[in-house]
Structure formats: C-alpha cells, structure tokens
Design goal:
- By secondary structure, the chain is mainly α.
- 66% of the residues lie in helices and 5% in strands.
- The chain is elongated, with a radius of gyration of 30 Å.
Length: 119
C-alpha cells in the first residue's frame, strides 16, 4: 500500500469517526430535549394533581392548605388593586377588567351594572 493510499484510508476513517461523533452528539441533544419535555409534562401533572387535591380539601385544617388559601386570597387582592388602578373592576363572571361605567363585560357579555354601585 502506498503513502497516498494510507493517507486516503486515514481520511476516510477520520470522516467516518467524525460522522459517528456528530450523530452521537445529535442523538444526545435529542434525548436531553426529550427529557426536558417529559420533566415539564411531569411538573404540569403534579400541579394538576395538587390543584385537584387542594380543591377537594380546601376546608381541611391543614397548614399547607391554609398557606395556599392565603396566597390565593392575596393574589385576588393584588388583582383587584391592579384593576382598580386601571380604572375598573373584575367581572363577577369571568374576572376580566370591566372599565368604570360599563354596563356589560366586553369579554363574556355579563351584565355588570351593580358592581360599580357598591361604592
């Protein structure tokens, strides 16, 4: 075998090795992506299960339940304050912003005359 044949074989082998390395890197990247997708799916399922558990047990005398309820109430207070600063109130049916003086919710169509008369 001549010198050029050895160089040619070396180039072919190196190219094959690089191709395998590139394919392995691509396979690894795909597996890592698939893992992240499944982890995100699992997190959503845990959240769904936790929310279901909370809804079924929200009246229970449990510290974790009480903490969640307190956070939910605070979120509602903050949302109401945001709506007030924007010049409206939440729709009693869908929760969308209803501007002061509106007679109907522009999101769901609910008649809302009375929410501005409370003050």
């Amino acid at each position: 075998m001549g010198f050029l044949d050895e160089i040619s074989d070396g180039i072919v082998n190196t190219t094959k090795d690089l191709g395998k390395m590139a394919q392995n890197a691509g396979d690894l990247t795909k597996l890592q992506y698939d893992k992240k997708v499944k982890q995100a799916e699992l997190t959503k399922l845990y959240e769904k299960l936790g929310k279901k558990y909370y809804e079924e047990n929200k009246d229970a005398d449990d510290e974790s339940i009480k903490e969640i309820t307190a956070v939910i109430l605070r979120i509602k207070e903050i949302s109401d304050e945001i709506m007030q600063k924007k010049g409206g109130k939440p729709c009693p049916k869908c929760g969308a912003l209803v501007k002061d003086g509106s007679r109907f919710c522009s999101t769901c169509g609910e008649k809302i005359d009375d929410i501005f008369e409370e003050e």
